[in-house]
């Protein structure tokens, strides 16, 4: 009998497309009606032992029954659907009889650890043809269905190494943090593997975990944790495959010794200021340097609820004093932040404070687009008006223009207006016979407003607007010809 657990793990890891002899995935498009299949389901059969129900295969998915696989493994994926609102229950087992007289019995499982349909995976050296099958199970509704949903050929998993991970010594064990290290030796044939660490104080029962990382190839990984001086820690690297196969490395230990006779810096977090439409200023103060000649200070900030802190650029202080940093913010998002001081791997943090950039309730500027003027051989003048400044003291105004149908707008240089009024700008390199569109825009503290779109056409000056016409004597005149002067 083939070890179904091992075969199932391998198939999930292989990443191959499982196909039958026809070269396509098995389909249930031609399934018979319920009353033509699975008619041998029985409830509360006392001969079933731990299984309350038994169901004979009714040839659903029979197009996948034959898999000829010389030198490889034949593979059949079976699905048992509940056939009603009642849930299926474990344990469940499937016994498959092949045309050559051999038999396979495998246990069922819920894919991904969930509920719903049960899945069975059967492997057979060289493949073969399914002749009959019976499933024994518990739970389910009145019309359960047993189907071969897929079939194909896969390589023998005995040649595929398992997922392996090793734990490596902790590094950078400083006054408040440590780096845990691990190495993913093999992905076991999977396309990706999740890795993380479990750690705890020695003598405690509960493991804490770091955030998971996804690796697509073998290699090192690490994670930083907070530690307390004078405490012994133990940790191990962990790898979890897509089919939930979990492996762990050896348990290693480290100790964060007390730091003797060192006075930490003292840092305080101050209120955020200058919270405008797109930025905010974080403030802090280095109160004391401790036992150090200089201290690096910066801020860590993030949206409330986020996992990762974002640090600002550090600056070095040689004495107590205030410091600040400007950060980008989004309207309507609440942020938390803290001041940080670091000296020779000794780290001190201030209190964590919060702020939020509310969506402003302000009157916006208003701009209008006026018709273009002075449309000559190669240039045109675009015109607009700043109707109101809204709640702003100054507004930057400019134009966007393009050939009608083009994707990208071209822009003129901005002008700053401190009161309502007209503005204009000349554009060049125009093409004749082409329709242009343009609009006026205003920007104040990242708030953008736009006027309506206007259009104009650069006409060919050598092409008359109307056909030539004859004068009273029958002589043609050119409407663009300058009339000759008359003398008496």
From TrEMBL:
Residues 28-47 have a biased composition (Acidic residues). Residues 456-488 have a biased composition (Basic and acidic residues). It comes from the Archaea. Residues 22-52, 452-488 are annotated as: Disordered. This is Uncharacterized protein.
């Amino acid at each position: 009998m083939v070890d179904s657990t091992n075969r199932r793990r391998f198939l999930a890891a292989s990443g191959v497309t499982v196909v039958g002899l026809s070269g396509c995935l098995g389909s249930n498009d031609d399934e018979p009606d319920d009353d033509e299949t699975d008619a041998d389901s029985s409830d509360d059969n006392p001969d079933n032992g731990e299984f309350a129900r038994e169901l004979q295969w009714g040839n659903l998915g029979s197009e996948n029954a034959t898999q000829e696989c010389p030198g490889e493994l034949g593979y059949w994926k079976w699905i048992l659907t509940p056939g009603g609102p009642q849930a299926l229950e474990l344990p469940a087992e499937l016994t498959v009889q092949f045309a050559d007289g051999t038999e396979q019995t495998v246990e069922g499982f819920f894919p991904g650890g969930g509920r719903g349909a049960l899945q069975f995976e059967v492997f057979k050296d060289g493949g073969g043809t399914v002749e009959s099958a019976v499933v024994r199970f518990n739970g389910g509704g009145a019309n359960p269905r047993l189907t071969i949903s897929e079939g194909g050929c896969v390589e023998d998993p005995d040649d595929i190494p398992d997922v392996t991970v090793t734990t490596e010594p902790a590094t950078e064990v400083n006054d408040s943090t440590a780096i845990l290290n691990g190495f993913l030796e093999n992905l076991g044939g999977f396309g990706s593997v999740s890795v993380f660490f479990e750690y705890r104080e020695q003598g405690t029962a509960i493991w804490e975990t770091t955030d998971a990382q996804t690796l697509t190839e073998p290699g090192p990984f690490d994670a930083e944790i907070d530690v307390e001086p004078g405490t012994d820690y133990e940790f191990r690297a962990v790898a979890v495959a897509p089919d939930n196969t979990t492996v762990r490395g050896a348990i290693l230990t480290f100790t964060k010794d007390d730091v003797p006779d060192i006075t930490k810096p003292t840092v305080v977090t101050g209120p955020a200021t200058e919270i405008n439409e797109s930025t905010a200023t974080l403030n802090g103060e280095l109160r004391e340097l401790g036992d150090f000649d200089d201290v690096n200070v910066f801020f860590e900030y993030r949206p409330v609820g986020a996992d990762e802190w974002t640090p600002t650029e550090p600056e070095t202080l040689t004495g107590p004093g205030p410091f600040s940093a400007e950060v980008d913010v989004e309207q309507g998002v609440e942020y938390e932040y803290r001041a940080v001081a670091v000296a020779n791997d000794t780290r001190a943090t201030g209190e964590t404070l919060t702020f939020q950039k509310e969506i402003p309730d302000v009157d916006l500027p208003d701009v209008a687009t006026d018709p273009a003027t002075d449309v000559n051989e190669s240039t045109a003048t675009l015109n607009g008006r700043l109707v109101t400044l809204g709640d702003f003291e100054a507004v930057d105004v400019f134009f966007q223009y393009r050939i009608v149908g083009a994707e990208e707008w071209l822009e003129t240089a901005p002008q700053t207006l401190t009161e309502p009024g007209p503005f204009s700008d000349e554009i060049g390199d125009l093409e004749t016979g082409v329709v242009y569109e343009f609009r006026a825009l205003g920007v104040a503290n990242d708030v953008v407003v736009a006027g309506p779109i206007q259009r104009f056409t650069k006409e060919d000056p050598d092409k008359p607007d109307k056909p030539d016409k004859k004068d009273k004597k029958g002589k043609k005149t050119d409407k663009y010809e300058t009339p000759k002067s008359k003398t008496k």
